[in-house]
Amino acid sequence: MIELLAGGILFLCCTYTGIGIRAYYRNRKELYSQYAGFLEHLKEDIGFRKTPLAQSTAEYCQGKKGAFIDMLASYRKMLEEGRVSRADFDKLACSPYLDKQGRREFAEVFYGLGKVDEYTQTENLQKARAAVEGKLQYYKKKYDTTGTLAFKLGVVLGIAAMILAA
């Protein structure tokens, strides 16, 4: 009976680890996907509708959730409070789903928003969107391969551990 319980606990631990790894890769993929969508949204809002930045950010966030949406909520709060220093934007881009270069790129894009004329801003947003496209494809592929493999491997290792314990 104790062996069966120990095997069940080992199975759950291995499976939970696999689920956690898969969730990490899914969240990373979703962050970049939402970021790309936000850049497109901003490009349209700035270029055509000329919507203020805080309002445009709020419109994009409606009905969505995730790490990037949390980042945008903090960004909107920063805009409303008037905090626009470089250090604030560096703190804003701190996410466990971003590497060092990604943090720097996010901070630069957010720091540059609203600081130049409309034409230059939409041009910068297009450049940022083009730069993020490669990473988005990479992280989608990484989720499809590594993320799903980690989950499957966690289940298989859990079953193996359960069999060995019993």
Please give a structural write-up.
It is a single chain. Helix 1 (2-49) runs antiparallel to helix 2 and helix 1 (2-49) packs antiparallel against helix 6. It is elongated, with a radius of gyration of 21 Å. The protein has 6 helices and no strands. With 166 residues, the chain is mostly helical. The chain has helices at 2-49, 53-61, 67-81, 86-92, 100-112, 118-165. The protein has one domain. The protein starts with a helix and ends with a helix.
Short description:
The chain is mostly helical and 166 residues long. The protein has six helices and no strands. Helix 1 runs antiparallel to helix 2, helix 2 runs antiparallel to helix 3 and helix 4 crosses helix 5.
The stretches of 5 or more residues where confidence is low (pLDDT under 50) are none
Helix content: over 70%
Q: Please outline the major beta sheet.
A: none
- In whole angstroms, the N-to-C terminal distance is 9 Å
Tell me the Rg in angstroms.
21 Å
DSSP strand content:
under 5%
> What is the total tally of β strands?
0
Structural class label: mainly alpha
Please state the overall shape, judged from the principal axes of the Cα atoms: elongated
H/E series: HHHHHH
Number of helices: 6
Average pLDDT, to the nearest integer?
Answer: 89
Count of all domains: 1
Chain-wise SSE layout:
Elements: H1 2-49, H2 53-61, H3 67-81, H4 86-92, H5 100-112, H6 118-165
Key terms:
166 residues, mainly alpha, 6 helices, 0% strand, elongated
